[in-house]
Design brief:
- By secondary structure, this protein is α+β, with helices and mostly antiparallel strands.
- It is 16% helix and 44% strand.
- The protein has 3 domains: 1-14 and 56-226, Ubiquitin-like (UB roll) (Roll); 228-299, Roll (Ubiquitin-like (UB roll)), CATH 3.10.20; 303-608, membrane protein fhac: a member of the omp85/tpsb transporter family (Porin).
- It has 8 helices and 26 strands.
- A 16-stranded antiparallel beta sheet has the order 11-12-13-14-15-16-17-18-19-20-21-22-23-24-25-26, with no helix packed on it.
- A hairpin with a 7-residue loop joins β3 (116-122) and β4 (130-136).
- The chain is extended and about 105 Å long.
- Residues 1-55 have low confidence and may be disordered.
């Protein structure tokens, strides 16, 4: 019987090793002197030339018989580069013995303990020799018994129970050493992750009976006691300690868990206050099963400035300036100012954020915005100020409850008016993606409900729902992109009572391509687009890569319109082709679109920015 056994030992699973590397630095080179350096350089070059000349002269291993996986494993165990081409006959027997040992190990790893292997060295090959191996792997060893147990304080731990109840190896399975090793590693990893830092093997044994072609897996782990978190030291001075403590996902005295330490590091990093975060469990200082935790934090710069440049065919060139105060005070408040300038649309915004009980997922925000728009037959000057409660749910959804005051002075077509409204709103949104810049699979959904009432001091009464979404799915080597936008409004009076910002328009880069920006929608008697109460727009696009580089080609069909009454819905369509470039700063898109009912035979659309 062959027995592979791990000797019983007591050690801390979390303990590691330290390797010191020592070399000769530039000072050492200077000590050698110039002649020595020149000789060293010439010698190195000579050795490099010799190695390059003989790099291709390696003996070959020729295997006949067995399966492809068996042959691959043998080649993984037997490196022919270790043997010289100039092999004296007296060394042949030693090479064959060495290869035989390695082949035996390779086949045993796959469960073959009684192989028949013949070896021969063929010197007729040029410019080197071949080692010919004829293989009969023999019968396969199968698992007769699997005995996996955990004793000690972790015996009832659900993570250990999950392994012992389903170890991934069953009686009747063929023996594979890698499966046995993975099972051992799973048990040790759980012990380390769950704080059983004194875990030790009572028995770790793989018993093989080659004559019976049977194996037994015996793994008995004594978990020992489970350690607990001790005092948590937060080394920083920019925020109040009681505020930063709200970012800790556990309390002192809670059971030790590596995943909780990772959550702590992630929370501190995602808070936006710190440039670098290091979380260190002081295992060497643990006493009575209690591990103190030390975090070393380096703050980010308090104020950040940003300049943005952009261009799209809808808006034209635009410039953005932003100032972000990452921590306005020691209670973690922050604010930002944002200015955007473009010919048809400019805005200035201010947002002040107050973290609540959960600083990462629960905030109270105070905001104010002033925006001017001058787009063809419409003009608008709008001021709004309000408050929001933003919650990032554990499900991944983000909800925003807001109340804002909004004043708008607008002209649409030939009609001018002003409105003032107190508007409560509720927004729910979520984005899922496998890559924030260049997703192959992902989706985004944003839903908004808002309204106002004259009974509550507004100049108009209305109720409105809006929704937009996008879905991206890998299809073959390319991507399928689906997009939709919809909205509906109920208003006391006609659409002319709605301010411009609450009306729907269609057409443009992100709507129905082939038409100009906001050139679709209900029109007045002078054929000027005045917008509608409702919107329904959709798009289907397929994108296929061109070569192995960052370029792709696209085909698309868009359709939809803005409208005032459901009976008047008149969808317009555009279709075309496009080029895509995955640039270092994000996707850049160029589309050529044609719409049968557009004034333009072909319209160019150019956009930049993430897909979701």
């Amino acid at each position: 019987m062959v027995c592979v056994e791990t000797q019983r030992r007591r050690r801390r699973i979390a303990s590691g090793w330290l390797a010191a590397l020592r070399g000769v630095g530039p000072q050492g080179m200077r000590v050698l002197g110039k002649p020595a350096v020149r000789g060293l350089v010439l010698g190195t070059l000579l050795l490099s030339l010799i190695a390059a000349a003989s790099a291709e002269e390696v003996p070959r291993l020729v295997i006949e018989g067995g399966t492809e996986s068996q042959r691959e494993n043998i080649r993984a165990f037997v490196s022919m580069a270790r043997y010289p081409c100039a092999l004296p006959p007296v060394r042949e027997r030693g090479v064959i013995r060495d290869v035989e040992t390695r082949v035996t190990r390779a086949l045993r790893a796959l469960g073959h303990y009684r192989p028949e292997v013949e070896f021969a060295i063929d010197r007729s090959a040029e410019p080197c020799w071949d080692l010919q191996l004829t293989l009969d792997p023999g019968p396969v060893v199968r698992i007769a018994e699997v005995d996996v147990r955990v004793s000690g304080e972790g015996a009832d731990d659900p993570f250990f129970v999950a392994i012992t109840s389903d170890p991934g190896i069953e009686p009747g399975d063929r023996l594979r050493h890698d499966a046995h090793d993975r099972l051992r590693s799973r048990l040790l990893r759980v012990a380390s992750d769950r704080g059983y830092l004194e875990a030790e093997w009572v028995t770790s044994r793989l018993q093989v009976d080659p004559e019976a072609d049977q194996a037994r897996v015996l793994l008995h782990l004594d978990s020992g006691p489970r350690y607990r978190f001790g005092a948590i030291t937060l080394d920083q001075d920019i925020l109040r300690p009681d505020f930063v403590e709200r970012l800790i996902p556990f309390e002192a005295g809670a059971p030790y868990s590596s995943s909780q330490l990772l959550s702590l590091q992630r929370n501190l990093r995602d808070s936006g206050y710190f440039e670098t975060v290091r979380v260190r469990p002081r295992l060497d200082d643990a006493t009575d099963g209690v591990v103190p935790i030390v975090t070393e934090l380096e703050p980010r710069k308090r104020t950040a400035y940003e300049v943005r440049l952009g261009y799209s065919t809808d808006i034209g060139p635009r410039v953005g300036l932003a100032m972000n105060r990452r921590y306005a005070n020691r209670r973690g408040h922050r604010f930002n100012l944002d200015l955007e300038l473009a010919a048809p649309r400019s805005s200035l915004g201010f947002n002040y954020v107050i973290p609540l009980a959960d600083p990462l997922r629960d905030t109270f925000e105070i905001f104010s915005t002033y925006r001017e728009e001058d787009i063809r037959d419409t003009e608008s000057k709008r001021f709004q100020a309000g408050v929001s409660h933003v919650q990032r749910r554990a499900t991944g959804w983000q909800t925003t409850s807001s109340l804002r005051y909004e004043y708008e002075d607008f002209t649409v077509g030939g009609v001018s008016d002003t409105t003032s409204s107190l508007i409560p709103s509720y927004r729910i949104s979520r984005t899922e993606t496998d890559d924030p810049m260049h997703p192959r699979d992902g989706w985004r959904l944003d839903l908004l409900a808002q309204g106002a009432s004259e009974d509550l001091g507004s100049s108009i009464s209305f109720a409105q729902v809006r929704g937009n979404g996008k879905y991206i799915r890998g299809l073959g080597s390319g991507r399928l992109l689906l997009r939709g936008d919809a909205g509906a409004t109920s208003v006391s009076g006609g659409v002319e009572t709605l301010p411009r910002s609450l009306r729907f328009f269609a057409g443009g880069d992100a709507s129905v391509r082939g038409f100009g920006f906001q050139r679709l929608g209900p029109r007045d008697d002078e054929d000027r687009v005045i917008g509608g109460r409702h919107l329904l727009v959709g798009s289907v696009e397929y994108e296929h890569p061109v070569g192995a580089g960052p370029w792709a080609a696209a085909v698309f069909v868009d359709g939809g319109n803005a409208f005032d009454r459901y009976d008047d819905y008149d969808p317009q369509y555009g279709f075309g082709i496009g080029a895509r470039w995955r640039s270092p700063v994000g996707p850049i898109r160029l589309d050529l679109a044609h719409a049968p009912d557009s004034d333009d035979t072909v319209r160019i659309h150019f956009t930049m920015g993430p897909d979701l």
